[in-house]
């Protein structure tokens, strides 16, 4: 297995509060990798460090053999990591199709002059972007809403659209922040299928989830964070038996594992 | 050296007027995250209403002493401005509290221009002479520095008001509710704070301070005018940002500092620029400071909390 | 022009082709209709065209990219003064307009970049107040840079600015046809300005439906999400700012040539606010709305001027509200009430960021295939 991403000794503090300390983990090419942990364990912080929203004080992240630029989200996307948001963030005044087209921004090149002069190349690129965006909408199953303004889509479709938009950046690693949050059982089932298809088509997936059942069933390997530290990294079957994990979930006074499942 | 001392005194006087106005900006911003563009125009309305009231008092009660006349005018103007502040919040801003971020900002600009237009309709375009009821004749110079009674009055009144405001915010129930609302609307209302009332109160208090500032401004310069609120308003906003917006102490510090920089700067700008710029450029100090602060220390001198609303 | 058709709400939806012809016919015939009411109205139309250009440019910044710029008129000033410096007796330089106009546009764009570089990372409301400050600084300099070296001629401004000379033909002289017929220069300026407006519309639409237009809309709708799909938000904002400024610069140049003189008075904060109100009134972000807003808010105060003044004279024997006050009153009320009652503007239209011919019909065929 080839390593796609390696986080080495990530540390992040907010004022006096340690959010992450010495977190190291390895994501392999082609796997679905889960990141779980109780509330406030540092999952989202890690996610934000990974995607360049925060800068970590310690450690580095190596992606595809090169170090990721810290604190520059657009360069992280350029390097091949795309993300979704826990509380869906679409471009609300644009249609579903246009949202995905916007996702192609970084993989298209037309400059202002080419656009103002409508050069052959610019026109062709625009046609290609539109077509590819249609394909992606079809891929996540919402092409019939292509011309619908995104704020009018249903919750589940908005989630799918956000994933399509992330895929439009042509990522090697797709990072999903609690994609099942707020979904019912049917929607979650469909989401599971979609994630598997995405992996099947060659995109590595990083999944941050509260829904332990979904994570256990879907992920090849997972890491568990607690109080900003990694306490386990293994295949789901082994993680389930890990004492530290059990006490983190049950002993910490929360029954999230059972309740969320 | 004497020039420097003199400019320092002048700067403190102007600065304390800025500070009073800055408090209004900073309180509203702290609670709503809104730049109340119309705040400077409340100052203008304050000055013009006071002028009108003083004229009436002088007409119908010419025997009333100078100070009671001034206090009467001030009282009327404070009451009118409090009502005005409440009306603005109630009619223009309240409905837009959850609107897209540009909407309340644009409305605020609209309110500012509406107030100016109304003032233009009522009082015309001319400069009005503001009666100088407190003397503007300098007293005997101390260490070569001239100071006028009106300047002393401005310093005393603004210091008193600032202390009173700090006490109000830190020691009273209303103040506690204001702080809670500024921290988090939802939580505050869950804890039983009527946030609508608190926000209205904030506007009312801010407007009262602006009215006083307007009267002091006009008493010092001897004029009142429909557009007089724009510059002090902008400068007071700068002062609020300089001190750290949302922070009361910061607004006071920012106001005084801005007054000093401006006053001392104006005295030396010609030398500093080798005669290229003269004191008619005095007004750009505020903008330059605003730019520098926002670029290098957007949280201001005393600000810690980075409000990430809007 | 498709968008313009929507400016006629009823016809625009039912019969876009007919609506388009109506719009084109109106645009071409406008000065001929206006002159029936007097030559002043043609002049007002000319100014309306300049405001339309300004509104199109500011809309690019505020409506597309969501950046509230309160000092936009400063770019207009840069364009106008560049024209005046390079084509007037003031420095005794008389360069042709096809050199001066681009120079003004370039300087305005440069000013946009200089202002934007440090300030565009500020949050929206801070940006508003910094740009407001910038507008005032420019005006203060224009007013005072007549000493110690006379650059701007201070409050008096610069007179006798060269008119537009197209291929050796001075259009301010009008057009003599035959012996007895002469087309007034006001008409000619109208058509020149109209050409600029049409060009602006085409260019702005091209930008809107492109990766750049989508990036702007993305930043406006959700800046964090825009970053998360790899948009370099700083560069894109800077681009919006400088392109918007370019439009301001070009209109400023045209203004200087048309008016024949420039003075700081024309570039007050009120003008920035007026242009902002136009786009708020018509509908931020949608081109048809912005154009209608600009036309309406240029014409309305003038109509009021001719109606309200005589009415007041008749009723009260004196003029209580002079035209300038009426204009301010109208603009400020328009701004407040539009935001409170109809925030999407007079003509709320959904703005496209994709080519309709590539989209429409496709989603239904996808449905059929299923």
TrEMBL record, chain A:
Q: Which SUPFAM superfamilies match?
A: P-loop containing nucleoside triphosphate hydrolases
CDD domains given for it? ABC_Mj1267_LivG_branched
Q: What Pfam families does this protein's entry cite?
A: ABC_tran, BCA_ABC_TP_C
List keywords of the entry alphabetically.
Answer: ATP-binding, Cell membrane, Membrane, Nucleotide-binding, Transport
Where's the ABC transporter domain?
Answer: 5-252
Is-annotated flag, keyword ATP-binding? Answer: yes
Gene Ontology terms describing biological process:
D-alanine transmembrane transport; L-alanine transport; L-isoleucine import across plasma membrane; L-valine import across plasma membrane
Instruction: Report the GO molecular function annotations.
Output: ATP binding; ATP hydrolysis activity; L-isoleucine transmembrane transporter activity; L-phenylalanine transmembrane transporter activity; L-valine transmembrane transporter activity
Keyword check for Mitochondrion, yes or no. Answer: no
Which Gene Ontology terms of cellular component type are present? plasma membrane
Q: Which SMART domains match?
A: AAA
The name this protein carries in UniProt is ABC transporter ATP-binding protein
Q: Which organism is it from?
A: Zoogloea oleivorans
TrEMBL record, chain B:
UniProt membrane topology term: Multi-pass membrane protein
UniProt keyword Transmembrane helix present: yes
Regions that span the bilayer: 12-35, 67-88, 100-123, 143-169, 198-217, 250-269, 284-303
One Pfam annotation reads BPD_transp_2
**A Gene Ontology biological process term:** D-alanine transmembrane transport
Record-linked InterPro entries: ABC_transp_permease, BCAA_transport_permease
Which keywords annotate this record? Amino-acid transport, Cell inner membrane, Cell membrane, Membrane, Transmembrane, Transmembrane helix, Transport
MF terms in GO: L-isoleucine transmembrane transporter activity; L-leucine transmembrane transporter activity; L-phenylalanine transmembrane transporter activity; L-valine transmembrane transporter activity
Q: Which domain of life is it from?
A: Bacteria
* GO CC annotations, alphabetized: plasma membrane
Task: Name where it mostly resides.
Answer: membrane
**Name this protein carries in UniProt:** Branched-chain amino acid ABC transporter permease
Automatic annotation (TrEMBL), chain C:
Q: What is its main location?
A: membrane
Transmembrane ranges?
A: 21-42, 48-68, 73-91, 97-117, 124-142, 187-204, 238-261, 273-297, 328-350
Q: Name one Pfam family in it.
A: BPD_transp_2
Q: Which UniProt keywords apply?
A: ATP-binding, Cell membrane, Membrane, Nucleotide-binding, Transmembrane, Transmembrane helix
How is it placed in the membrane, per its record? Multi-pass membrane protein
| Record's subcellular location | Cell membrane
Q: Do the record's keywords include DNA-binding?
A: no
Q: Which GO terms describe its cellular component?
A: plasma membrane
Please give one Gene Ontology molecular function term for this protein: branched-chain amino acid transmembrane transporter activity
The protein's matches in PANTHER family, at most eight in alphabetical order, are given as: HIGH-AFFINITY BRANCHED-CHAIN AMINO ACID TRANSPORT PROTEIN BRAE (PTHR30482:SF10), HIGH-AFFINITY BRANCHED-CHAIN AMINO ACID TRANSPORT SYSTEM PERMEASE (PTHR30482)
What is this protein identified as?
ABC transporter ATP-binding protein
Taxonomic lineage: Bacteria, Pseudomonadati, Pseudomonadota, Betaproteobacteria, Rhodocyclales
């Amino acid at each position: 297995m080839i390593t796609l991403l390696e986080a080495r000794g990530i540390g992040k503090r907010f004022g006096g509060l340690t959010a992450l300390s010495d977190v190291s983990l390895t994501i392999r090419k082609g796997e679905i990798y889960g990141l779980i942990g109780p509330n406030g364990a540092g999952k989202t912080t890690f996610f934000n460090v990974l995607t360049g929203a925060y800068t970590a004080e310690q450690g580095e992240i190596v992606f595809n053999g090169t170090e990721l630029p810290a604190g520059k989200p657009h360069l992280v996307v350029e390097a091949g990591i795309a993300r979704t948001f826990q509380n869906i963030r679409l471009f609300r005044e644009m249609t579903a199709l246009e949202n995905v087209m916007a996702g192609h921004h970084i993989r298209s090149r037309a400059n202002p002059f080419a656009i103002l002069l409508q050069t052959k190349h610019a026109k062709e690129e625009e046609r290609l972007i539109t077509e590819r965006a249609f394909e992606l909408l079809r891929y996540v199953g919402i092409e019939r809403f292509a011309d619908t303004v995104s704020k009018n889509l249903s919750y589940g479709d908005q989630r799918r659209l956000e994933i399509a938009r992330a895929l439009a950046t042509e990522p090697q690693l797709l990072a999903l922040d609690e994609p099942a949050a707020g979904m019912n059982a049917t929607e979650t089932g469909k989401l599971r299928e979609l994630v598997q298809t995405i992996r099947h088509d060659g995109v590595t997936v990083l999944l941050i989830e509260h829904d332990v059942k979904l994570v256990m069933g879907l992920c090849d390997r997972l890491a568990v964070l607690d109080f900003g530290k990694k306490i386990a990294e293994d295949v789901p079957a082994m993680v389930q038996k890990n004492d530290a994990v059990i006490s983190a979930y049950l002993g910490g006074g929360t029954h999230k594992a059972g309740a969320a499942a | 050296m004497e020039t420097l001392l003199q400019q320092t005194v002048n700067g403190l006087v102007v600065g304390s007027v800025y500070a009073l106005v800055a408090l209004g900006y900073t309180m509203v911003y702290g609670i709503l995250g809104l730049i109340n563009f119309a705040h400077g125009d409340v100052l203008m309305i304050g000055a013009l209403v006071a002028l009108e009231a003083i004229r009436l008092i002088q007409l119908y009660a010419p025997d009333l002493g100078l100070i009671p006349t001034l206090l009467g005018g001030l009282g009327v103007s404070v009451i009118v401005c409090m009502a005005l502040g409440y009306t603005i919040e109630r009619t223009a801003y309240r409905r837009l509290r959850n609107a897209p971020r540009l909407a309340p900002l644009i409305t605020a600009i609209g309110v500012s221009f509406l107030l100016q237009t109304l003032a233009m309709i009522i009082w015309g375009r001319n400069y009005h002479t503001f009666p100088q009821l407190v003397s503007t004749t300098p007293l005997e110079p101390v260490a070569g520095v001239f100071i006028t009674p009106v300047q002393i009055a401005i310093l005393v009144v603004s210091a008193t008001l600032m202390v009173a405001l700090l006490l109000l915010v830190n020691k009273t129930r209303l103040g506690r509710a204001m702080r809670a609302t500024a921290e988090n609307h939802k939580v505050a209302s869950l804890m039983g704070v009527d946030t609508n009332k608190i926000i209205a109160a904030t506007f009312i208090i801010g407007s009262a301070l602006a009215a006083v500032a307007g009267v002091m401004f006009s008493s010092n310069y001897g004029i009142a005018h429909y557009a007089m609120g724009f510059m002090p308003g902008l400068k007071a906003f700068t002062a609020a940002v300089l001190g750290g917006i949302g922070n009361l102490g910061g607004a006071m510090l920012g106001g005084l500092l801005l007054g000093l920089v401006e006053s001392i700067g104006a005295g030396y700008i010609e030398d500093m620029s080798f005669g290229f710029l003269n004191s008619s450029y005095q007004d750009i100090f505020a903008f330059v400071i605003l730019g520098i602060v926002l670029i290098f220390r957007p949280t201001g001198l005393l600000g810690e909390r980075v409000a990430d609303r809007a | 022009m498709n968008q313009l058709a929507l400016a006629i709400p009823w016809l625009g939806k039912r019969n876009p082709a007919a609506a388009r012809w109506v719009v084109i016919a109106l645009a071409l015939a406008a000065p001929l209709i206006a002159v029936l009411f007097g030559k002043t109205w043609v002049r007002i139309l000319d100014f309306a065209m300049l405001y339309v250009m300004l509104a199109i440019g500011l809309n690019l910044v505020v409506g597309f990219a969501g950046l509230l710029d309160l000092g936009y008129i400063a770019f207009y000033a840069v364009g106008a003064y560049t024209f005046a410096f390079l084509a007037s007796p003031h420095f005794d330089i008389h360069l042709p307009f096809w050199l001066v106009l681009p120079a003004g546009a370039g300087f305005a764009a440069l000013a946009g970049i200089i202002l934007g570089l440090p300030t565009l990372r500020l949050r929206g409301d801070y940006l508003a107040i910094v740009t407001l400050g910038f507008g005032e600084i420019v005006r203060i300099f224009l007013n005072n840079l007549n000493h110690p070296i006379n650059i701007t001629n201070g409050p008096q401004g610069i007179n006798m600015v060269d008119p537009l000379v197209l291929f050796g033909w001075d259009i301010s002289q009008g057009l003599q046809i035959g012996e007895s017929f002469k087309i007034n220069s006001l008409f000619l300026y109208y058509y020149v300005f109209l050409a600029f407006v049409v060009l602006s519309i085409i260019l702005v639409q091209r930008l809107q439906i492109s990766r750049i237009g989508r990036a702007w809309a993305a930043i406006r709708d959700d800046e964090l999400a825009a970053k998360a799909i790899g948009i370099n938000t700083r560069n894109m904002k800077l681009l919006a700012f400088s392109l918007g400024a370019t439009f301001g610069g070009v209109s400023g140049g045209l203004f200087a040539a048309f008016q024949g003189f420039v003075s700081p008075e024309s570039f007050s904060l009120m003008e920035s606010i007026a242009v902002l109100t136009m786009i708020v009134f018509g509908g931020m972000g949608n081109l048809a709305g912005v154009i209608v807003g600009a036309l309406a808010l240029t014409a309305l105060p003038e109509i009021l001027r001719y109606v309200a003044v005589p009415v007041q004279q008749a009723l009260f024997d004196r003029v209580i509200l002079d035209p300038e006050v009426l204009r301010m009153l109208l603009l400020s009320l328009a701004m407040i009430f539009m935001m409170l009652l109809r925030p999407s503007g007079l003509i709320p239209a959904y703005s496209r960021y994709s080519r309709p011919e590539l989209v429409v019909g496709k989603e239904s065929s996808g449905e059929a295939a299923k």
